[in-house]
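A reminder from the course coordinator: this example appears on the midterm review sheet, so study it carefully.

Given structure:
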């Protein structure tokens, strides 16, 4: 007898992944539009944009196209982001859409003022470390009030084990999450949220192999509300 198959129920994405997807969707077009505006202000024609951005950042054309197109959109890595700010004379805060940000770096009434390089605002030793980081979007309110939903986190992906207590991106029980990790001698690891609405999770020493360290959060920027 021929049986009629039943369709499998459609699985919904976890809430944290839906938030992350929404936040990236919100950030990418805003950054793209501001980047295109900076290219227009610099007199760079559309047909030259991919080649020019590749020259500025040293990145391959497929990566650069993702910063400019709505198909498979992407964000520049931090080192490329810094080169864009320097070369195009645009404030990092403006490119990210932060409160009170101006466009190209100049003082009111002084059109001849030279651009202020973004990385000159922080110590050079810190700048070198941050240049190797990957920017990601904070998915959720677990780390509020210090880190808010939608903030940009700069993550050192080279850190693959707990290197002192701090804020990490971790993989645990099938989830990627941002947590404060505390290494408690002879007890194991404690995963904590800054938001008191969420309780801590203890990872005993016998289960620490089930925890993946995906990177350490070194710095974050707050994105302005729309």
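Designed residues:
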């Amino acid at each position: 007898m021929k049986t009629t198959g039943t369709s499998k129920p459609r699985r919904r994405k976890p809430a944290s992944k839906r938030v992350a997807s929404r936040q990236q969707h919100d950030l990418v077009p805003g950054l793209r539009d501001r980047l295109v505006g900076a290219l227009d202000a610099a007199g760079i024609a559309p047909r030259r944009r991919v080649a020019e951005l590749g020259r500025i950042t040293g990145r391959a054309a497929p990566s650069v196209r993702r910063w400019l197109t709505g198909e498979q959109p992407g964000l520049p890595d931090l080192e490329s982001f810094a080169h864009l700010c320097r070369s195009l004379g645009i404030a990092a805060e403006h490119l990210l859409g932060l409160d009170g940000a101006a466009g190209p770096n100049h003082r009111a009434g002084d059109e001849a003022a030279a651009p202020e390089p973004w990385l000159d605002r922080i110590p050079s030793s810190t700048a070198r470390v941050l240049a190797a980081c990957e920017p990601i979007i904070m998915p959720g309110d677990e780390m509020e009030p210090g880190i808010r939903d939608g903030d940009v986190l700069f993550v050192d992906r080279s850190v693959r084990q707990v290197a002192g207590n701090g804020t990490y991106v971790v993989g645990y029980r099938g989830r990627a999450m941002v947590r404060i990790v505390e290494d408690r001698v002879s007890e194991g690891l404690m995963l904590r949220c800054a938001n008191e609405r969420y309780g801590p999770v203890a990872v005993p020493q016998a289960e620490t192999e089930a925890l993946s360290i995906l990177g350490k959060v070194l710095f974050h920027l707050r994105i302005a509300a729309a």
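Residues 15-132 form one domain. Residues 15-41 form the longest helix (27 residues).
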